[in-house]
Amino acid sequence: MEARIVKGMGGTYYAYTDQIVEVIPTGKIRKSKLLIGDRVEIQKDAYSSKYIVCNILPRKNELVRPKVANIDQLMIVIAALPQPDFYLVDKLIITCQISHIDPILIVNKTDLAIQQEIAKVYGKILPIYYVSAKDGSGLEKVKECMKHKVTAFAGQSAVGKSTLISALFQMSLDTGSLSKKVERGKHTTRHTELFHVGEDIWVMDTPGFSLYELNQIPSQELQNYYPEFASYKQSCKFSNCVHTTQNANVCGVVQAVQEGKIDMGRYQRYVTMFHAMQQKEQQF
Ligand SMILES: Nc1nc2c(ncn2[C@@H]2O[C@H](COP(=O)(O)OP(=O)(O)O)[C@@H](O)[C@H]2O)c(=O)[nH]1
Ligand SMILES: [Mg+2]
Ligand SMILES: [Zn+2]
Is 166 in the pocket of ligand 1 (CB under 6 A)? Predict the structure, then answer.
């Protein structure tokens, strides 16, 4: 029967079928091969009454940090307070594109303020949902788009991720307080867990998501992750242009930025990210 790996603790793995059961990897399926999020075939062992993993089904994606598989979508949560870190937002969107995860922007705390300008910058790049975890507005639509999917949440601390998950599913995955508890013991990191929170609705609690590093692609390829650059690149004078020049005469992207056709903030963050990646590359 088919099941999902939901957690692994101290070398013991658990899978969800209609309940959570302990599973034992055997033979060709070594323990080290299992990832949280894996879809597996399990069989009840006649002797021990435990479940044996006989097969790992093909993965849609496989992340290195956090070490998980089969994430369908990432909710990138921002809010009026704390002030949004759009560099992190851009980085997470790129991470999603690399790993074939659908990014979704959740603007929380709309009871405090509605930030119109966000739609202007990101509206064409990814879906945006405006919600308030506090008064419940917009939550039904978010829940709707989580059906039949594995969803992870990411974003700065205090944007309301934990409150949001609690409000959506009447449950508490309090990432904040849990990680604080564990931080007290040195060298311990929190484990990743997959929660079945509704009929075929899965929430992946991934503490490390915002720490994701951009070393999986060469800096020259970063530009390919900015869909709004695509139609202006053709006007660049040099085919290997990375659009970091000041000279609009030789770069179609820079020209489009100057003409207000590409958002200035997104472009400037691109340049910052490009230089950061280049610096990293030179270290090796
Ligand atoms: N006004 C308002 N406050 C919120 C909302 N959602 C969360 N908060 C508050 O924001 C703070 C941080 O929330 P928390 O869920 O811990 O953020 P996390 O660090 O992203 O998990 C808490 O004081 C919450 O009560 C909201 O929609 N509106
Ligand atoms: Mg939290
Ligand atoms: Zn260019």
Answer: no
E strands along the chain, which residues? 2-9, 12-16, 20-25, 39-44, 51-56, 73-79, 102-108, 128-130, 149-154, 193-198, 201-205
Query: What is d(CA 258, CA 167) in angstroms, rounded to the nearest whole number?
Result: 43
Token digits for 165?
């998950």
Separation of CA 86 and ligand 3 centre (Å)? 22
Domain assignment of residue 255, given as a range:
219-282
Tens digit of each residue's pLDDT (9 = 90 or more) over 58-112: 999 998 888 899 999 999 999 999 999 999 999 999 999 999 999 999 999 999 9
Q: Can you give the CATH number for the domain in which 265 is found?
A: 1.10.40.50
Residues 112/81, Cβ–Cβ less than 8 Å: yes
What pTM value is reported for the model?
Answer: 0.91
Can you tell me the distance from the alpha carbon of 20 to that of 22, in angstroms, rounded to the nearest whole number? Answer: 7
Q: What is the largest CA-CA distance in the chain?
A: 75
Final residue before a domain boundary, out of 166, 192, 211: 211
Q: Look at residues 165, 185, 211 and tell me which one is the last residue of a structural domain.
A: 211
Nearby residues for ligand 3 (ion, Cβ within 5 Å): 236, 241, 243, 251, 253
Instruction: Give me the CATH number covering residue 112.
Output: 3.40.50.300
Q: How many domains does the chain have?
A: 3
Report mean pLDDT in 10-residue bins for the chain, 284 residues. Answer: 93 92 84 90 88 94 89 96 95 93 97 90 97 97 97 93 91 50 44 89 79 82 97 97 97 98 97 95 84
Q: Are residues 36 and 119 in the same domain?
A: no
